[in-house]
Write a structure and sequence with these properties.
about 325 residues; mainly alpha; about 55% helix; elongated; disordered N terminus
């Protein structure tokens, strides 16, 4: 799907061009693997192709198991299926560790295996994706009302309504079609960079961005549909300017959003766009909260026991004497 925003690069308010990222974003870019801040990099990134599978995979269970479990929960929808997938992922990683080339973070390599496992299980169960509305229906231009919590001047107000909005977003993620849900969960729930998300899914970065933008807009639409609304402030700029501002907002979210210091300058945003941007921030915050958690202890013990059993079987096969081939008798040449 072509990025609907690519065709627009008009001048932003105050003479700034939205395409000029150096003016819109003052902070340095995010690291290639944003999940390192979750404690994965120091012990796990030290794993190399030379590390044995019996050492590497249990280390990945300890450091990345919780996030693999969270990934499976959101992609498989069914908790029992998710646990089966998690166990399958680590056993498959054990068998295929020799294929790890060391040119990416081991956890990212593991996410790719998990994504493929979830896709395979979904297709085997005959899951059919629901279609999302047309992109034109997801855009906020025709709307006359915005969420009350987004229009409130105080971010701490309406705490209960804000929590309900977050819960709605988290429930709606499972309703997204697979091609939107996959990149959203990797980028917003696991907080991988766009680069790592693209590498995990085997897609171009621009394709990942396009799908992320559409997924966020779809979640925002679903969230606002059942929220307390107030009359939207009138826009003070032309539609083209608002479109440029929305593109800038979504690109800022690609780089981590407000939580990481990436935001469209508030002085350039009218009250209506500011309310829409707060709704999008609620979507991103709701996704980030889903990334918190750990692997259930019984599942962790089960996986480690299965890995130990496989290691023991390998050792037994190595020590077992091999029988040589019996010599083939040559038949006497006929006279």
């Amino acid at each position: 799907m072509k990025d609907a925003f690519d065709a627009h690069s008009g001048d932003g308010p105050g003479g700034l061009r939205v395409a000029d990222k150096e003016q819109w974003y003052a902070q340095p870019p995010m690291p290639a693997s944003s999940h390192r801040r979750f404690g994965l990099a120091t012990p796990v990134a030290a794993l190399t192709p030379a590390t044995s599978a019996s050492e590497a995979i249990p280390a990945l269970v300890e450091r990345a198991g919780g996030r693999i479990h969270g990934l499976a929960r959101k992609l498989c929808r069914n908790p029992a299926d998710a646990e089966d997938v998690v166990q399958e992922v680590f056993l498959q990683a054990y068998r295929k560790w020799h294929l790890f080339r060391g040119d990416s973070d081991p956890a990212t390599w593991l996410y790719a295996i998990a994504v493929r496992a979830c896709k395979t299980r979904a297709r085997r169960k005959g899951g059919i994706d629901r279609r999302t509305p047309a992109l034109s229906q997801l855009m906020p231009w025709g709307e006359t009302r915005v969420m009350e919590v987004a229009a409130a001047p105080d971010d701490t107000a309406h705490r209960a309504e804000r929590n309900e909005a977050v819960a709605r977003v988290q429930a709606e993620i499972a309703r997204l079609p697979e091609y939107l849900r996959m990149p959203l969960v990797l980028k917003e729930v696991l907080e991988l960079s766009v680069e790592d998300t693209a590498a995990t899914l085997g897609l171009a970065e621009n394709t990942v961005k396009t799908r992320l933008h559409r997924a966020r807009l779809a979640l925002r639409k679903a969230m606002t549909a059942r929220s307390a609304l107030v009359k939207a402030p009138m826009p003070i700029f032309e539609k083209q300017v608002c479109l440029d501002l929305l593109k800038a907002k979504l690109e800022a979210m690609d780089r981590g959003g407000v939580a990481h210091g990436f935001a469209v300058p508030q002085a350039e945003v009218c009250a209506r766009c500011r309310a829409v941007f707060r709704e999008l921030d609620l979507v991103q915050n709701a996704c980030a909260q889903l990334g918190e958690g750990s692997m259930p202890k019984p599942l962790r013990r089960k996986i480690l026991a299965a890995l130990a059993e496989r290691k023991q079987a390998e050792r037994a096969s190595e020590t077992k004497p091999r029988r040589g081939r019996r010599p083939v008798r040559r038949q006497a040449a006929r006279a």
